[in-house]
Amino acid sequence: MNDNRPIGIFDSGVGGLTVAREVKNLFPNESIIYFGDSKHLPYGNKSKEVIVQYCKDITQFLIEQNCKVIIVACNTASSNALQDIQGVAKEHNVPVLDVITPVAEKVAYGFYQKMGVIATKATVNSGVYKKRIRKFNKHIKVQELATPLLVPVIEEDVMKSDISKAVLEHYLSNKKLEGIDSIVLGCTHYPLIEKEIDNYFQGIVKVINSPLIVAHTLKIILAKNELESNHDTEAKYRFYVSDITKNFQKLARKFFGKNIELELKLLH
Which of 8, 60, 144, 240 could bridge across to 67 with cysteines, CB 3.0–4.6 Å? Predict the structure, then answer.
């Protein structure tokens, strides 16, 4: 069966493009519709109720765009609104893939002993990474640390500045992360500063590439549900945002690797 409908991907900002980029690389014939809720970013300091409503609205929009599968490319959304997103999608028989479960399962069997997780306040407060990793391997010690300033640093495109270095050092030197042998970047924005994080730990700590894990999990879902596109299909990419900003446009083009155009879409 050849299903040429697009894959829907959403995030609060540009971070989810790290997932979209891996999907594009792994599936060159799959079309993508991306939604960045730039009007409401960051999600990490919002209440659960507000996050749930944003996510349900975006999911409904992607379903209306005839998406065959939805990737919740936002850790905060995955940890606070996954069941609600799945509820909306289930009515239309659309599979949902979050960015936490496949990563938790993968790292649980990676022979790590003490793992660090850096994420937004909302994700850390949910405790979801520790719960899901230890569900698969109860022997791993998991230390979660909220790093709320990293998303604004990335969204404002000051990643190479002294500000970014100071913020990173402030967080990564935290006692909670002492002695870790691996670190999960628990926000899809963070792979954009993966090199800087790796440099800080001088290659001693394994930095987990979450977007790549998610993309490989998508491969299983597409095959299982017979949703793969025809190999001769020319992929199309559309990018929607709830607020168009110069920084978003600049970062989107920089990290997706194409001269993309953003379309404004206001949700309820």
Answer: 8
